[in-house]
Amino acid sequence: MILVLSQGITREEKERLLETLRAEGNLIKEIQGEEETILGVVGKIRKDLGYYESLPGVAKAIPISSPYKLVSRQLHPAPSTIKIGEVAIGGDRLVVIAGPCGVEDRQRTLEIAWMVRKYGAVLFRGGAFKPRTSPYSFQGLGEEGLKILKEVREETGLGVVTEMTSPSQADLMVKYVDVIQIGARNMQNFELLKCVGRIGKPVLLKRGLAATIEEWLMSAEYILSEGNDQVILCERGIRTFEPYTRNTLDLTAVPIIKKLTHLPIIVDPSHATGLRDKVSPMARAAVAAGADGLIIEVHTDPDKALSDGPQSLYPGQFEQLMRDLYVIGPVVGKQLDYAYLEKARMIRRLHEPGAAPAQAAYRGVPGSWSHKACQQFFGGDMPLKECSSFREVFDLVDRGQAAFGVLPLENSLTGSFHENYDLLLDYDLQIVGEVTLRIKHNLIGHPGAALEGIERIYSHPQVFQQCKEFVASHPRWDHIACRNTAACVARIKENKDPKEAAIAGEEAAELHQLAVLKEGIEMNPRNFTRFVVISKNSALPGEKNKSSLIFSVGDHPGALVAPLQVFAANNINLVKLESRPRPDRPWEYLFYVDVELDMLAAENRSLLEQLREKTEFFKYLGSYQKGGAAASEAVIGEKGTTSAG
Ligand code: PEP
Ligand code: MN
Fold this sequence. Notes:
Blueprint: E1 2-5, H1 11-23, E2 27-32, E3 37-42, H2 49-53, E4 58-62, E5 82-84, E6 87-89, E7 95-99, H3 106-118, E8 123-125, H4 143-156, E9 159-163, H5 170-176, E10 179-182, H6 190-199, E11 203-206, H7 213-225, E12 231-235, H8 253-260, E13 265-267, H9 269-273, H10 276-288, E14 293-297, H11 315-331, H12 340-350, E15 360-363, H13 369-378, E16 384-387, H14 390-398, E17 404-411, E18 415-416, H15 418-426, E19 430-438, E20 442-445, E21 456-459, H16 461-466, H17 468-472, E22 478-481, H18 485-495, E23 500-504, H19 506-511, E24 515-519, E25 528-535, E26 546-552, H20 561-569, E27 574-582, E28 585-595, H21 605-613, E29 617-624, E30 634-636, E31 642-644
Parallel strand pairs: 7-8, 7-14, 8-9, 9-10, 10-11, 11-12, 12-13, 13-14, 15-16, 15-17, 21-22, 21-23
Antiparallel strand pairs: 1-3, 1-4, 2-3, 5-6, 17-18, 17-25, 19-25, 20-23, 20-24, 26-28, 26-29, 27-28, 30-31
Helix pairs in contact: 3-4, 6-7, 10-11
Bound molecules: phosphoenolpyruvate and manganese (II) ion.
């Protein structure tokens, strides 16, 4: 049962209420929502709802219709993220867990760990207690294997995931591992579930070989009911009549789980297929279906692996898969971040005395695209500072009041955000990072409102442009411009007028509990916005492979060719060239240039000098790692390979 508390509940009333509920033997979970506080009350509810509604401080009592309570979305509407050190599963960034099926020997395990880390895995997997179908197969190294996993964590910084097969291993798990895996064969081993519930470490709960989704969620409920909320579900294929693959991957489970529970879900395409060449296609499909991450078996010499070699990827295949996920991520609103762990460490260092205030400034409010860009770039651990204008973002970074600023610079349908280019000219700050978001706009209105009843729509002027065709098809609507999309949604929420709607991203609708009246109304679904991260002097980790420049040239024949020849002669790829009138000098132009190169690398410094000589005005804006590729930047080829275009 869910109890919605009255707005004006006093402390005494709340304490008395909790006492009454506990005395009945219920488990109580308090959830602070945006607008109200609710209590999840789980137990044998003995009285009717009317009784609970009559208790002082209770506004409403709602039954939870499903047999699982603590894991249900009804009780906990916002998605949960599970933290494993600096890794968050369930947030805006894809999490890939990789490693061998079983821990074999120290050297091999470390070799695999460094390899998967290099290609973007952020957690390491490897079994030390292997539940094998045959008692004669490799059973794992036991504690010896756990010691090797601990060494992997210490050497590579990767958190480790391993399977626990018996409650007798509890102390070892506490001592050595970061995430405890409950394997498919043990999904309904209730003593084991209760045990990991009490241990309190994050649990990766695999779906049983023949378990229904409801049975799987009931198993998760066992763990939560012991007080451990940190459960990650893992779809790993189920037994069907099809013998071609080891199991049948039930990808439908992903959207179903997303609807039924707040817990994150990852997919294991290795055990689901059992066939190496089927792993990558199913991994890509899992991400497209909305999975929060993947767990994949990878080995440096799969042919010699002691278990599950035939389904383990070769390093090159894993590298390729990660490149594909890097491209697919933004299409479904997520990012694969190659500098995930390094960034997390950098954010931690910012909290040390003497560092610039550890916050990133952005223009907008939660639910806006800029807010999403911040979360996708930095993850959830970076404190964010809302600003009301782009200039304010620049000011805060310039004055050292924010270590970073996040700004939209270019949209694939409507072009540059010139205001930000002008501000980049005015301020002496550097571009240090980039992140690309797919922008999917929706018409958002009040729940139950119909499209036909809308009279007035709110959005940002650029967004009206991006949805030009849809907007033009409703000529009678009034258009009201707002500073950012999330603010528009907040406004219609406040106005409570079903005749009003706003154009914004899905997150804004979720945040304000409004409804999507029409999805995907942008002119072209290939609508991407490139955001840049600016800073005064805080560097970001990651390989730098792109630089931005602004220059102007004199008014004589061949003036523009001269600097461009520097790029051509040095075989440098130009990825952007745009001219724009100089705000201070009529009929003179500035050229904005992006190149695929780290211009500050020692071997390229002379290029900066050559460019300065060949231009009248020259400003170097910074070098950074190219952000999550947009579909236009890379394509997935026939064999599932990615090529930069
Ligand atoms: C494993 O992850 O190595 C494993 C044994 O998985 P499952 O329990 O899904 O078969
Ligand atoms: Mn395995």
